[in-house]
């Protein structure tokens, strides 16, 4: 059984396969800890010019392609950043609010960016705060706050809406302004987290200040080339959505058959309730399957989508052992 100090390593965030390999052994790890699509957009045919600095025109083309994908009419509202986790840490000093609130449970990076924020369970309890930070869909339980609710809140305070797990289209990007700031991730849906690419969708004032802070080369040449081409690939985007939906349905049936209750979900992950969730985490890890435990809820485990039939089969075999 894994001890508490070792478990804490995997409660911080997903993707710590190297640490898991040291602790549990094994080489062929199935990483279900991150909530990142297991099918990556194919980068092989994209020319990657690592010997050149990103061109201003290239960055503008990337932001225009992202704007079109997000349903934003004005590309100037879309600011490319080296991942949305970095964006939060840059936004915090720019916003300079006095009474921030963060919806919890949620992404740990929100509290890291606003360490003095008041934790709240739902947005509707926010009264005397001047900033609200939340993920929508939420992480780890997939809760979605309605569009009208968030628009009403944005009329009286600044909101940062982290839409990392939203579909490429939809959400609140089309209503973004200096008081309704939307964060979008590239890596999760496109299965390329190592590209470190995200976007802040906001109004002209905050967007200009953020661009000034980022400087002339906010993201790499590789990120510009990959992101621009991928956002124009509508056929792949439709196929990816179909894969996510189909595999999600298969995962639901697998978890239900194993007697594990699904208490939250987003397209790319499921949150399960299990009294012995830490034992399940440990058993899966000994089968080289990494999931996401939680320090404050030892009866919860987050499981992302496996890649194809082989991944589902490996997970099913391990769950059957646990059930027995």
Which features would summarize this protein structure in a list?
single chain; 13 strands; Aspartate Aminotransferase, domain 1; alpha/beta; Aspartate Aminotransferase, domain 2; 2 domains; 12 helices; 324 residues; four-stranded antiparallel beta sheet; 16% strand
CATH class of the largest domain: Alpha Beta
Q: What is the CATH architecture assignment of the largest domain?
A: 3-Layer(aba) Sandwich
Q: How confident overall, as mean pLDDT?
A: 93
What gap, in angstroms, lies between the N and C termini? Answer: 17 Å
Structure write-up:
With 324 residues, this protein is an alpha/beta fold. It folds into two domains: 4-35 and 236-323, Alpha-Beta Complex (Aspartate Aminotransferase, domain 1), CATH 3.90.1150.10; 56-232, Aspartate Aminotransferase, domain 2 (3-Layer(aba) Sandwich). Helix content is 41%, strand content 16%. It contains twelve helices and 13 strands. The strands form three sheets. The protein has a seven-stranded mixed β-sheet, with helices on both faces. The protein has a four-stranded antiparallel β-sheet with strand order 9-10-13-12. Strands 1-11 form a two-stranded parallel sheet. The mean pLDDT is 93.
């Amino acid at each position: 059984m894994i001890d508490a100090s070792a478990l804490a390593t995997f409660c911080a965030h997903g993707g710590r396969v190297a640490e898991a390999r040291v602790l549990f052994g094994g080489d062929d790890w199935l990483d279900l800890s991150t909530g990142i699509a297991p099918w990556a957009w194919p980068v092989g045919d994209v020319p990657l010019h690592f010997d050149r600095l990103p061109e201003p025109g290239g960055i503008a083309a990337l932001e225009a392609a992202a704007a079109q994908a997000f349903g934003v009419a004005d590309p100037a509202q879309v600011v490319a950043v080296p991942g949305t986790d970095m964006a939060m840490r840059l936004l915090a000093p720019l916003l300079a609010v006095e009474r921030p609130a963060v919806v919890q449970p949620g992404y740990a990076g929100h509290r890291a960016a606003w360490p003095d924020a008041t934790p709240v369970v739902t947005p509707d309890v926010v009264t005397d705060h001047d900033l609200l930070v939340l993920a929508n869909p939420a992480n780890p339980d997939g809760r979605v706050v309605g569009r009208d609710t968030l628009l009403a809140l944005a009329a009286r305070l600044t909101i940062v809406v982290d839409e990392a797990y939203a579909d490429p289209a939809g959400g609140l990007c089309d209503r973004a302004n200096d008081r309704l700031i939307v964060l979008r991730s590239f890596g999760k849906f496109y299965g390329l987290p190592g590209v470190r690419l995200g976007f802040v969708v906001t109004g002209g004032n905050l967007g200009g200040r953020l661009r000034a802070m980022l400087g002339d080369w906010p993201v790499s040449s590789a990120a510009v080339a990959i992101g621009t081409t991928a956002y124009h690939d509508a056929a792949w985007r439709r196929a990816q959505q179909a894969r996510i939906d189909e595999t999600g349905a298969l995962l639901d049936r697998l978890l239900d058959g194993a007697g594990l209750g699904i208490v939250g979900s987003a397209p790319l992950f499921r949150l399960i309730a299990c009294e012995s969730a830490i034992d399940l985490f440990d058993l899966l890890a000994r089968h080289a399957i990494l999931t996401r435990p939680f320090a404050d809820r030892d009866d919860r485990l987050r499981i992302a989508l496996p890649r194809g039939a082989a991944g589902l089969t490996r997970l099913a075999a391990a769950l059957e052992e646990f059930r027995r």
